[in-house]
Amino acid sequence: MYLDVTGVTGFIKGSYSMGYGTPQASIDVECTGFSGSLNDVITMDLGYAGSHAVIFTGRVKEITEKRSRAGWNYNVRAYDELILAADFFIAADDPDSPYSIYNIASEDLVEDLLNLASITSYSSTAPGLTLATSGPYQIDRVYAIDMINKVATMAGYHVWTSANGTVNFKQLLPYPVGAPSHALTVGNTGELIELARGVSEESLRNRIVAYGAAGLKSVASAVSPHLPAGFYKTAIIGHPIMDTQAAVDKCSSENLTIMNRLSESVQCGLVGDHTILFGQTITVTEAKTGTSGDWFVSNISHSISGSGFITQLSLTK
Amino acid sequence: MAHTLGGHTLYVTADDGANSVIHAELNVLDSTASTIQHFAKPSDRRRLVAHVITDATMNSIKALSSGSAAANYTSDQGSQGNYYIISVGSKRLRGRPIGFDGSSPTDSAYIATLDMIKA
Questions:
Q1: CB contact under 8 A, B26 and A306
Q2: How far apart (Å, rounded) are the C-alpha atoms in residues A162 and A123?
Q3: Which spans in chain B are helix H?
Q4: Which of A210, A244, A248, A279 has its CA 20 to 30 A from that of B29?
Q5: A307/B40 Cα distance (integer angstroms)
Q6: B21 touches chain A (CB under 8 A)
Q7: Measured between CA atoms, how close is A53 to chain B, in angstroms?
Q8: CB distance from B20 to chain A under 8 Å?
Q9: ipTM > 0.85?
């Protein structure tokens, strides 16, 4: 096994986790020596002696020195770059002159908000959503990450940080898209240690109502084969910076595509594989639970300890 | 031949070693063999049972376990390296020592059990 974390010596155990529903990736390391300081940039390079890669770049946010019967150890916790946006509260020096936006593409607004939080490594695509077209809109007394996530929801996009620390604002649909990068299975050539499969319509929404400025609204709905005939589960998304009919229409239609789905999920553990990444499409085959086909990696965690290098995945269809 | 630990004489009657390696064993569903991952090799451990002659020597050996320093262990095969003494057990013998180098019939005698971990 291989693990290298910036500033860490005497590694005892470590873990990494990232998920669709969690704001940032994080790592936790227990070690006998640590030379870093709070907010230092830190990377985690993980895998096997002959095959490993940097899977995390972030900032040290918590250092604990612990001395006990079990020894003298450090516990180090770090979060990816989006922690800066989560910690940055937008509050104007002059309340009469707050940060304001006007006629701005959503990807540019997200970049500006990231820049306010000192995040400059950024990659985006354009969802075709222009905001605050009819006049200046003031953004004040809100955490940058909250505003960024609202914009992402309006666009049907997702915000996450790559392993190299670059923040992405792109479409990342929470179901398998494209060719699978990995195939996981059981048996002597397989990887799966444990697996559970479930199905639920709890998070399914087949009617999306988007509200914008000045009475603008858009409703998108579709019949779901997983709900009683004629029955609709509704989600509401609203924000006054959507001030065109095109904006609220896009918001409702994109989110209907994302939410009008059965929550078919798999939780599985496998022999550690650092090449599996958040957001990938992978194939999983396990006959006894009836698991097959392509899945979206919605949550991933790696752990290395005396119990082994194990990867845990939450997968959705 | 007497052995020494931290320069103090022991008459060793048993020397048990324990070497281990931490391997994680993962079992893939429906597989017929384990997946083994090497994690680490802990320090070698050693357990000595030895006669110790005189209270002074017994107390000196006990003192080796009360600090944070490792002590050199030399057997009849030469230096075995430095060891941390993680526990010392002692049992006073009823009889008088006879036949130990330089001992007096009035000396106290102990059977000591020493658990050690290699530095």
A1: no
A2: 10
A3: 55-64
A4: A279
A5: 11
A6: no
A7: 18
A8: no
A9: no
User: By the CB < 8 Å criterion, does B93 face chain A?
Assistant: no
Closest CA to B53 of B85, B8, B83: B8
Residue B31 is nearest to which of A187, A194, A272, comparing CB atoms? A187
* Cα(B52)–Cα(B11) distance, integer angstroms: 7
Considering the four listed CATH numbers 3.10.129.10, 3.55.50.10, 3.40.30.10, 2.60.120.330, the one that applies to the domain covering A84-170 is: 3.55.50.10
Domain A182-200+263-316: which CATH number of 2.40.30.150, 3.30.470.20, 3.40.50.1970, 1.10.10.10:
2.40.30.150
Min Cα separation A212/chain B (Å): 51
**Residue in B26, B39, B40 nearest the CB of A271:** B26
**Beta-carbon separation of A186 and B29 below 8 A:** yes
The hierarchical CATH code for the domain B3-118 is 2.40.30.200
Q: Do B31 and A188 count as a contact with CB atoms less than 8 A apart? A: yes
Give pLDDT tens digits along chain A (317 positions). 899 999 999 999 999 999 998 879 999 999 999 999 999 999 999 999 999 999 999 999 999 999 988 788 999 999 999 999 999 999 999 988 999 999 999 999 999 999 999 999 999 999 999 999 999 999 999 999 999 999 999 999 999 999 999 999 999 999 999 999 999 999 999 999 999 999 999 999 999 999 999 899 999 999 999 999 999 999 999 999 999 999 999 999 999 999 999 889 999 999 999 999 999 999 999 999 999 999 999 999 999 999 999 999 999 99
**CA-to-CA dists, residue B8 to A189, B49, B116, angstroms:** 57, 14, 15
Contact A250, A127 (CB under 8 A): yes
